[in-house]
């Protein structure tokens, strides 16, 4: 039996950075950012908003909604590309923060698809042993890895975290299936270098430092096509028609990607959850934050057929179908 999402939670830094704020840092404008990306504001972390702290606060809210104690957790998976340290994992920091003494914990790097990859992995653990309780988190402080001098990228990203608690489902409810993909040949179109190597022989050529580098137009093209195919393949495999989908939560990258995807998939806009205008692209955190907001707004009820999809660096992408 597939796993059910027992609770959701999210945590966003309080500090809001507007498009006008960015126009004071780089040569851009509110009008350019709104029309090209749909983003109006994003949240930028301050002291106390480290990736693991945002993650732990989101986790506590999800646990509280689920009625599950931290000590009951068997596993913590954190999807992130902005880990607090290289070692230990952000998941281990979260474990310490919330007191999940029984769990084992690790991070997963699949960029913006990190949450969906983690959800699928956790689902397999629950299918193997229905007594398991698992915390899946997407958490990022992309502001720490944004090149604040590059107007092509710095307007797109934001910080935040979202979490879900998974447990075994009752008949007819739960995660139906996932269609996850990646293509490492396309890595260079969206990537972030490692810190400078202490072994000169293994240094990456022309390492510009640790920040996001992106070929925006290429990413746009691949993202729309890949998510569209992942969705149609998944629906065909599961024998579900588009009409049956009640809510669609795509990765919140930017409004033009979302509009193009929605048009190509052919799903009515009123069935699409969009919050990119207020948070920007929060990478692995975007889907669990949107899930939590949709849930707390009452848009996810038992029986709701939910479709989720993502695309990110790697390239990594995928789609997941859930009977809420
Ligand atoms: N303000 C003003 N001008 C800008 C800005 C800015 N912030 N950024 C770029 N420009 C300029 C460029 O320099 C360029 O000027 P030029 O013609 O004088 O060289 C011009 O605007 C057009 O640049 P393009 O890159 O061609 O602009 P485009 O219309 O493609 O929009 C964008 C750029 C928004 C990045 C778009 O390519 C896109 O949405 N790509 C997808 C990227 C994305 O969402 N990545 C997130 C990670 S992956 C994911 O989550 C799916």
Automatic annotation (TrEMBL):
Keyword DNA-binding: no
Cellular location(s): Cytoplasm
GO biological process terms, semicolon-separated: fatty acid biosynthetic process
Region (ACP-binding): 252-256
UniProt-recorded Gene Ontology molecular function terms: 3-oxoacyl-[acyl-carrier-protein] synthase activity; beta-ketoacyl-acyl-carrier-protein synthase III activity
Beta-ketoacyl-[acyl-carrier-protein] synthase III C-terminal domain span: 235-324
Main location per the UniProt record: cytoplasm
Pfam families: ACP_syn_III (PF08545), ACP_syn_III_C (PF08541)
Annotated pathway: Lipid metabolism; fatty acid biosynthesis
Alphabetical list of InterPro entries matching this protein: ACP_syn_III_C, ACP_syn_III_N, FabH, Thiolase-like
Catalysed transformations (reactions): malonyl-[ACP] + acetyl-CoA + H(+) = 3-oxobutanoyl-[ACP] + CO2 + CoA
Domain of life: Bacteria
A GO CC term assigned to this protein in UniProt: cytoplasm
Active site residues according to the UniProt entry: 112, 251, 281
The EC number(s) this enzyme carries: 2.3.1.180
Domain Beta-ketoacyl-[acyl-carrier-protein] synthase III N-terminal as annotated: residue spans: 106-184
Keyword line: Acyltransferase, Cytoplasm, Fatty acid biosynthesis, Fatty acid metabolism, Lipid biosynthesis, Lipid metabolism, Multifunctional enzyme, Transferase
UniProt similarity note: Belongs to the thiolase-like superfamily. FabH family.
Domain notes: The last Arg residue of the ACP-binding site is essential for the weak association between ACP/AcpP and FabH.
Known function: Catalyzes the condensation reaction of fatty acid synthesis by the addition to an acyl acceptor of two carbons from malonyl-ACP. Catalyzes the first condensation reaction which initiates fatty acid synthesis and may therefore play a role in governing the total rate of fatty acid production. Possesses both acetoacetyl-ACP synthase and acetyl transacylase activities. Its substrate specificity determines the biosynthesis of branched-chain and/or straight-chain of fatty acids.
Subunit structure: Homodimer.
Name this polypeptide is given: Beta-ketoacyl-[acyl-carrier-protein] synthase III
The species this protein was found in: Candidatus Desulfatifera sulfidica
Top-level taxonomy: Bacteria, Pseudomonadati, Thermodesulfobacteriota, Desulfobulbia, Desulfobulbales
């Amino acid at each position: 039996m597939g796993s059910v999402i027992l609770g959701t939670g999210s945590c966003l830094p309080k500090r809001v950075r507007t498009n006008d704020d960015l126009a004071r840092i780089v040569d851009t404008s509110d009008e350019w950012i709104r029309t090209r990306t749909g983003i109006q504001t994003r949240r930028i972390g301050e002291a106390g908003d480290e990736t693991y702290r945002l993650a732990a606060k989101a986790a506590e809210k999800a646990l509280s909604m689920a009625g599950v104690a931290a000590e009951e957790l068997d596993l913590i998976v954190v999807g992130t590309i902005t880990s607090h340290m290289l070692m230990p994992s952000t998941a281990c920091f979260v474990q310490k923060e919330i007191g999940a003494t029984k769990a084992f914990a690790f991070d997963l790097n699949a960029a913006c698809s990190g949450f969906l990859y983690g959800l699928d992995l956790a689902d397999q653990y629950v299918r193997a042993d229905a007594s398991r309780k698992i915390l899946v988190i997407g958490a990022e402080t992309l502001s720490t890895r944004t090149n604040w001098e590059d107007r092509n990228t710095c307007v797109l990203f934001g910080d935040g975290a979202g979490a879900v608690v998974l447990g075994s489902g009752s008949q007819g409810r739960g995660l139906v299936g996932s269609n996850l993909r990646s293509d490492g040949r396309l890595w260079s179109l969206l990537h972030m270098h490692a810190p400078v190597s202490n072994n000169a022989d293994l240094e990456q050529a022309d390492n510009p430092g640790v920040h996001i580098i992106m070929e925006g137009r290429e990413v746009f093209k691949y993202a729309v096509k890949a998510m569209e195919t992942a969705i149609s393949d998944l629906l065909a495999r599961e024998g579900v028609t588009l009409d049956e989908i009640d809510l669609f939560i795509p990765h919140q990258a930017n409004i033009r990607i979302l509009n193009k995807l929605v048009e190509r998939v052919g799903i009515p806009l009123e069935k699409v959850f969009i919050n990119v205008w207020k948070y920007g692209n929060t990478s692995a955190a975007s889907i669990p934050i949107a899930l939590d907001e949709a849930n707390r707004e009452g848009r996810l009820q038992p029986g709701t057929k939910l479709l989720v999809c993502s695309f990110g660096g790697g390239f990594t992408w995928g789609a997941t179908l859930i009977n809420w």
